[in-house]
Amino acid sequence: MQEIKKLKKEFHTIKKMGWVKSVNEGKGSIGLTFENLLGKEKENFELPDYLGIELKTHQKYSKSYTTLFNATPDGRYLFEIKRLQQMYGYPDRVLKYCKVLHGEVSASFQKKIGLWYSYQLEVDYNERKVYLCIYRNKQLVDRETFWTFDLLKEKLERKLPVLAFIDALEKTVNGEVYFRYLTLRIYCLRDFRYFLKALEKGDIIVTFTIGVFRTGIKKGQVHDHGTAFRIRKKDLKKLFYRI
To answer: Rounded distance, CA 99 to CA 87, Å?
Structure first.
């Protein structure tokens, strides 16, 4: 595959550069810096990052999750995220009169988020949906939020047919951040059934980051940072095979 060969060549050029200065500050700078070195402009399209290949950069010794894709859930109501925030959120630490919902949800166990509610995913093969189940005192109180298999399969296959996983180191010198890109691994996506299996076992989780605008004309309104399906580096082999 010519695209993979080109990416490998570009990566080795970047690797030889050693420590390179970050192009910006804050979250995501490790990936944005690498893409900048490739000559790629920042974009928000739900397509692979580079020549049909999705790029994921990760600090070498970090055990944190990597986002596969974002997918807003559906439900009986038009604005499902807003419903979850209003019914099951907890007070924002700044705007106490507004509710937020931040947390990681797995299919392998119930996890308490906020003050009263616990959450767990359920993979329903009969209905071909992944449900968000919400509990209070271990009693199911809500099973209306879901993602269809078709939606998840389409997002996965469009965004991640080929994945390039790049390990890097980070250091700060005189208040400025630098990265050194070390290794490149190329993976190809397995069948969608592997995704569902990994989701059932808790190897893939869903992260909610439903906040509120704290200032400006939108103050108090929902600020949804995206609902992400995420996986750890050590579990990539459960969803991809390496080439």
So the answer is: 9
* DSSP conformation class of 19: S
Q: How many CB atoms lie within 10 A of CB 59?
A: 13
Residues 6+ apart with CB under 8 A from 120: 105, 106, 107, 109, 110, 111, 133, 135
Q: What is the CA radius of gyration of the chain?
A: 20
Q: Enter the tokens of residue 240.
A: 């991809």
The span from the CA of 54 to the CA of 72, in Å, is: 20
Using one digit for the tens of pLDDT, what is the confidence trace for 85-140?
Answer: 999 998 888 888 888 999 999 999 999 998 899 999 999 999 999 999 999 999 99
CA dihedral 155, 156, 161, 163 (to 10 degrees): 110
Q: Where are the beta strands (DSSP E) in 3-96?
A: 20-21, 54-59, 65-70, 90-91
Token pair listed for 189: 């996506």
The H-or-E segment that residue 163 falls in is strand 162-173
pTM of the model: 0.90
What is the tally of helices (H) and strands (E) in the chain?
5, 14
User: Both tokens of residue 192?
Assistant: 């969608």
> How far apart, in whole angstroms, are the C-alpha atoms of residue 132 and residue 37?
40
Q: Cα dist. 127→108, 145, 147, 218 in Å?
A: 19, 13, 11, 38
Alpha-carbon span 140 to 146, nearest angstrom? 15
The phi, psi pair for 16, rounded to 5°, reads: -65, -20
